[in-house]
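Treating backbone geometry as a discrete language has practical consequences that deserve illustration. Part of our work consisted of pairing the sequence of a single chain with a tokenised description of its backbone. What the numbers capture is local backbone geometry rather than side-chain detail. For completeness, the protein is quoted in full, as a sequence line and a line of structure tokens:
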Amino acid sequence: MIYSGTRPSGRLQETRVEATPAPTIHEDSNLPHSSYSRGDPCGRPGNCGRPVNCLCVCEEGISEGTAHIRENEVARRWQALHSGVQLPLSNGGSYQLLYAGRPGSRLGPDVRDAVLGSFAGSIVGDVEFHVQSSDWFTHQHHTDPRYNNVILHVVFIYSSPTLRQDGATIPTCSLYDVPYHLPYDAPYTTSLATTWPCHHAMQHMSNEERTRLLRQAGLLRFEQKTHAFVELLHDAQPDGPFSAYDMCLIPALAEGLGYGRDRAFFRAAGLRLLGISSIVPEPLGRMPAPSPLDAGRLRILRGLVEQWGASGAWLTVRKAMFPQKGSGREALLPGAMPGQILHEVRAIFGKLSQARADILICNIVLPFAAAVALIENDSMLAEQAQMLYLAHPGLPSNSITRAMCQQLQLDEEPPGACQQQGLHYIYQQTCREKICGECIAGEKSI
């Protein structure tokens, strides 16, 4: 392969390119076989591809400086770019890098929520890395809906356009066309070193002020979820053994079982279990059967829906939120502690793990209860829902809370579900799109 100029160009030039041997694929013996033996050639589960690890793709015929290219080198080069750099695109345009994004998972694109500037304004979406642009098709991403939020394909060698599963063509950027001043063996750096307004504000806050900020943000997220449920409840109708409340709550709980995985599939499964004719989407990754974890959650969901057909989902939740020793609301157990009540609510979900049950409680059950309280003008229920939300000791860490702790330069994740949900609120409202001028974390007080 022949390139013009003093450095390799990312765009293949037909008049200057000789026949290139096929890439030599090497399995990395340092990786456990399970990390790449199933799934697509990127080592991600769920696609039917050859069992190879594309982090070890050697391109024969490339100049000596790039004789051994790996996808992790593409990732390293991307993360080393400075905010504000211009990214030349395959379509002749350019983007300005505003934020390089947060790391993705093995179940989808390499980078989530990157922020790019264009003449039409900023755009937010995912980024996928490959050595060659043709690897997009080799790895079957063009048939995988998990990649429909990719807004930029970042490669070393451009040879063909990039087409998403939804039919959209997305631009490609060759990093060979982007100025790069570090040696190939330079240590890993990251564009997260950019200074943001929240850095200055958070450094000047006391621990009490930071706690108050995140607590208020968490309550705003709780209120946001509550009002979303109010809107859904206004349109809900009873169906068979299920009340109007159940017809709203059960699909939400089903979707919550898919948080971080395949929400649309789980929600559709919940609707189907309620007897609602619903098209169940193909599971992400085109798996012939659900993973063991998903299959176990679906079995639990089916058992709960069968149980709630007799007892009622909302009535079961409401009873657990108000422990009683007799009958009637006046028979509340005196001095019931929040921990005891949360234990009763967790028990509703049977064999579901405590971590997932807590996610359902804080994201769905308690905001739903607050929504019912608004509709029924039930102040006791409203106070109980908010009290349990504020008292919850904390949820499992996830990619958003970890990214926000890094963004806000927190030494550790804050305690309590409310503050953790506050991180989610700040991220979704302003930080995801880097709308710093409107971010509550960039203010000294709230």
